[in-house]
Amino acid sequence: MNGNGYDKRSWKKKRRRQTEGFEAVAMYWARAKKDGKFGLSYLDNQVFSWSVSDIFDRDLLRKKVKRIPDTFTSFESYLDSFTWPLIEEVHADVFSSLDGYSEANFIEVTQVGNLDASKPILGFRVAEPVKDEKSRETYVPVENDIIVLSSHKPRHVSDLTQNKSSFVLGSVIKTGEEDGFPPDWCVVHLSSAILVEADCHTKIPKRPLFLVFLINMKTYNRIWRCLHLGQNCSNLFELQNKKSSGPVTKAWEFKPKPAEAESSQCSQPSQCFDGRLIEWLGLEKFGLNDSQLNAVSDCVSLMDSNSSSIKLLWGPPGTGQEDTCLCTYEYCCVRDCGSDRQSNCEVFRWHRLPE
Length: 355
Fold this sequence. Notes:
The chain has 14 helices and six strands.
């Protein structure tokens, strides 16, 4: 067989494979969208509503975010008090990602097609990630990712402000290979409808197209659902009577001790948390300040008492709550010799707050 005949067969096979990939995505979406489980979350819509200038406005939510009080009037008021601080944290995360846009990971789109006539939902096939460690063209889409759809590789955030169509966000709502969904494809719900020109047969875009990663919303959406389960009366009753909601109930019923009582227990953070204990536990690697170490000390002290009191860790985004919790976790594991994930879970079960 001559070279031309072989090339023609190879081209037809490649084109058929390209067509079959999008057809499989379209068939999957036709079945899946009936379930209604792929709708955007409240937080996704909130992110989509922000312009580039909104994201870079540090005072955007200042009037909406109130200080979380020391006491609460009800279970619902306790959960509601975290709503705007959570949105503020999402805003800070998106800001941080856009601020470092020139260093963002991205991937090129090799095929694209519309999946929904009434919503800006598209199917994208992406290229293989580049194996060069120095390359940023390594992004692999994951469900709940927020991405920027761009016609350019990310160089500077000003690329997104050239015109109204320059800044288009998307939420990755489907990836994976189960249920007949083809690999290397993803379904993305865009923040606005845009015209993406592609070959009607091969679905290859006529102009360069890239997905640029910003943040993943999975954890934020989980927290949001937990905060708003109580909006339904039956859910609220169920939550308040669940054994697992005991710590939450203790939190909103928390009554702070008088200042003099607190000061009598410990006047200086350094006195509360002995430096030798820090060294023995290896906590210096966390780089906590005195205030954070004092918080760890307070939590640890509860484990050795029969008190049902609770300590609240509070602080604006970026003040080290996660590091403080990890430090406490480390203490539990070292103290009780937790060597694996299962035993560590048991450690926390032993040290749960008294019912």
